Amino acid sequence: MSIATNLQRLVTAKSDIADAITAKGGTVNSGDGFEEFPADILTIPAKRLIYGYHVNPSESDPAAAVTYVEDAVGMTPAKMGSASFSYGSWENAWFLPKPCMLKSDGTVDYYLDPNDYSKKADGTASDIANQNYDGNVMMEFPKIYIKRVPGSLDGERTVYIAQTNVDGMHLIKR
Q: I need a labelling partner for 48 at 20 to 30 A (CA). Which of 36, 82, 129, 167 fits?
C-alpha cells in the first residue's frame, strides 16, 4: 500500500473513533487525535443504573404489593426467613453499605468480608484485631440519589434510586 493510502486509512480511523466516542456520549474536541482519545474515552458516562420499585397499597398480598421498575425489573427481593437473611438479587447492589478498614488519613485501605470481619474481601486475614493498625473498621455508605413519586392512592408511590442525579433526584447524605 502507498503512503497516501495508509494516511487516508488513518484519517478515516481517527474520524471513526471520534464518532464512536461522541455516539456514546463522550466529548471529543475538534483538534483531538489518537493521543487525546484515551482521555476522551474517559468522558463517556457510565451506564446509569436506576433501581426502582412501586408500592400499590390496594394490593392485599404483600408479595404483589411491591413491583420492581427500571433496572430492578426481574430482580429477586431480599427477605428475612425464620433464621436467616437472603439478599435475593441485591447482595452486590452498589448502594448497600460495605465494611472496610479506613486509614487514619480517611482513605479506604481495603474492604472486609461482610460475613466475617476477621477476613478481607479476598479471604486473607484482616487487621480488625490489630491494635497497632493506623485506622478503624468502618461502614462505607455510598452517595445515592432518590426520587419519590406519589401515586393517586393514599400510600401509593414509586421510588427511584440512582448513583447520579437523574431527572431532578435528590442527594441523600448519610
A: 36
